[in-house]
Amino acid sequence: MNNIRIAIQSKGRLASSSEEYLSSLGIEFESNGRNYRVNSKNLPVEIIYLRDDDIPEYVEFGVVDFGIIGENVLNEKRSKVRIVRKLGFSKCSLVIAVPEDSSIRSLKDLEGERIATSYPKILRKFLRSQGIHAVTVLLKGSVEIAPSLCLADAVFDLVQSGETLRENNLKPLFTVMESQAVLIQNPFLSFSL
Ligand code: PRT
Ligand code: ZN
């Protein structure tokens, strides 16, 4: 049998907790370093280090068997993978936020406004469910500065402590989803971890 392949984030907020989780399963390995592929020392397992956004594709296409990824990324990509279990780390929320002094006070005030986000699919689905028509401004990063530069009237972004919102004079209006790290697997796999 081939080695079981497990993909985790190479650098970032999921990385060290993902490694700790694999260790807790009894998988022994030398941590990342410069290698993108690391063989376990005690089990027929290979760990593949990737950008987090790429992990769902690798799992969906069966190139790797398992992966660890945030529910936020998984929902945005609508990947056809199976969620094995929630892992309880990298918790955050996807929140609509507006400037402190905004006249937007409720969801219906978003009608016709511009919302900056890196999560357009989750946002549009939510707005549709609320019957709200708003313009999505797609940004790859630094979403929170868009209102102060008048690029958007609101943002839809990840929030953990709320510090970044406060630093940018933004306040939460509505939490659309909660997220945490999950273990995913290829849906055609006949066994689980
Ligand atoms: O390089 P790569 O593509 O692998 O990493 P990345 O830069 O895309 O992701 P990374 O490492 O920043 O985040 C990976 C995952 O961690 C996310 O997809 C979430 O599932 C989870 N996570 C948990 C978070 C946060 N908390 C978080 N606070 N991801 C991002 N943030 C950012 C947020 O975007 C905002 O800018 O932190 C800021 C807000 O934090 P607070 O504490 O100020 O509210
Ligand atoms: Zn990423």
If you had to describe this structure to a student in words, what would you say it looks like?
The protein is of the alpha/beta class. 20% of the residues lie in helices and 32% in strands. It has five helices and eleven strands, in the order βαββαβαβββαββαββ. It has helices at 15-24, 55-60, 71-77, 120-130, 163-167; strands at residues 4-9, 37-39, 45-50, 66-70, 82-86, 92-99, 114-117, 135-138, 154-159, 170-179, 181-185. Strands 2-3-1-4-11-5 form a six-stranded mixed beta sheet. Strands 8-7-9-6-10 form a five-stranded mixed beta sheet. A hairpin with a 5-residue loop joins β2 and β3. It is elongated and about 60 Å long. The protein starts with a strand and ends in an 8-residue tail after the last strand. The model has no long low-confidence stretch (mean pLDDT 96). The structure holds phosphoribosyl ATP and zinc ion. The site of phosphoribosyl ATP (PRT) has 22 residues, from α3, β9 and α5.
